[in-house]
What we know:
The protein is α/β, with parallel strands linked by helices. It has two domains: 5-107 and 223-233, Rossmann fold (3-Layer(aba) Sandwich), CATH 3.40.50; 109-218, Rossmann fold (3-Layer(aba) Sandwich), CATH 3.40.50. It is 52% helix and 11% strand. The strands form two sheets. A four-stranded parallel beta sheet has the order 2-1-3-4, sandwiched between helices. Helix 5 (108-118) packs across helix 7 (137-143) and helix 8 runs antiparallel to helix 9.
Amino acid sequence: xxxxxxxxxxxxxxxxxxxxxxxxxxxxxxxxxxxxxxxxxxxxxxxxxxxxxxxxxxxxxxxxxxxxxxxxxxxxxxxxxxxxxxxxxxxxxxxxxxxxxxxxxxxxxxxxxxxxxxxxxxxxxxxxxxxxxxxxxxxxxxxxxxxxxxxxxxxxxxxxxxxxxxxxxxxxxxxxxxxxxxxxxxxxxxxxxxxxxxxxxxxxxxxxxxxxxxxxxxxxxxxxxxxxxxxxxx
Length: 234
């Protein structure tokens, strides 16, 4: 029996939809139930992204963590037994959020680190929001496994962050923006020795994929979904 899954969504709605789709598809593949209508039970709380971004932007991170922990408690009270935050950046406060809720949470950072180690990455390029790229969230955790994380230069970080918040978060991405993101990745591979790319924002897999680059790509949303199901099916 699959434990009920609770998702803190809305960060952004587009990636939340992708989480739900991936969860259902992967669960069906794993369960192989004779009833084709069998699905895991998933509860989604879609929050107000503008409010969360405002708390982040003004440095009210304790309030942000408490708010997310409160949402996790709402999910738990609604029947969720395993929970997840459907975005990378809030994982900066993962320990505080987990401390504030009795819902068992699955970390996207840990799932991504396991995937990076399994792929044998030693020098991956990390893409994500400016906050994610500039924080030690991934670099310190991956360094423990002997992995040296690269991030884009200032102009590149601005490009990625702008694409996430002004295009991917609201209506998709323009072809020229996708081309710039691909060029940024290829430059890191060819000139800086990047041997992989970590899509450290759950919107980025909507425009970048494994076949787009000559190196492995870690889709953090996908590996997170698999880790959630590992816990839900345990």
